[in-house]
Amino acid sequence: MPARSPRSSTIGPRLSLQAPRGLEWRAEPQLLDGEHREAEHYERTVFDGAELGGITLQECLLEGVSLNDTELRGARFIECSFEDLFAPVFRASRSSWRETALHSTRWGSAELYDSRLDGVHLDGGKLDYVNLRGARLTDVLVSGCIIGELDLSGVTATRVALRDCTVGTLTLDGARLKDVDLRSSSFRGIHGLDGLRGATIDDQQLQLLAPFLAESMGLRVEG
C-alpha cells in the first residue's frame, strides 16, 4: 500500500528495498564499459577516471567506493546498495536506477540529467549540485540530505518526497509533478515557480514562498 502523510491525500513513494545478500567480495575488481556484473561486493575501491559507460550492476553492494570523474553514462543499477559513495564529479547522465538505496553520499557535481530513477532512496549525505534535468523520477525518497543546488528542470516526477532536507536553490522550470511532497524540507530560493504545480508544501513554506510568488505575478505588496 502507498504511504500517506498524516491528514494528507498526497501519495508517498512506494519503496520495497532490500539489502543485497550472498555477495562475492571483490578484492581488486576491474570493471569494463558495457559489462554486466551481479551479486558482488566492492569495498574501498577506486574507479576514478574509469570508462564504465553502459555498465550494469545488479544486486551489488558498494561501500566507500570512489567514482570521481568516472564515465557512467547510460549505466544501469538494479537492486543495488551504495554506502559512503564519494565523487567530487559524478558523471552518470542517462543512467537508470531501480530499487536502489544510497546512504551517506558525498557528491560535488552530479550529472544525472536524462536519467531514470524508479524506487530509489537517497538517504543522508552532502551534495553540492545535482543536475536531474529531463529525468523521470518515480517512487523516489530523498531524506536527511544537504543539497546546495537541486536542478529539476523538465523532470517528470511521480510519488517523490524530500524529507528533512536542506536545499539552497531548487530549480523547477518546466517540471511536471504529481504527488511530490516537499514538506519538512527547507529552501533558500526556488526558481521556476510554475513548476511547483502538483507539489505539496506546508503552511510555513507557503509563507516563505510568498515574496517569490508575488514577484513572479508582478504584485507589489505594501504594508
How would you portray this structure in words?
There is one protein chain. With 223 residues, the chain is mainly β. The chain has one domain (31-216): E3 ubiquitin-protein ligase SopA (Pectate Lyase C-like), CATH 2.160.20. Helix content is 6%, strand content 46%. The protein contains one helix and 16 strands. It has a 16-stranded parallel beta sheet that branches. The longest helix is centred in the C-terminal third of the chain and has 14 residues, at 203-216. It is elongated. The termini are far apart. The model is unreliable at 1-5 (pLDDT under 50).
For the record, the CATH class is: Mainly Beta
- The CATH architecture would be 3 Solenoid
Radius of gyration: 18 Å
Count helical runs: 1
How many strands appear in the DSSP assignment? 16
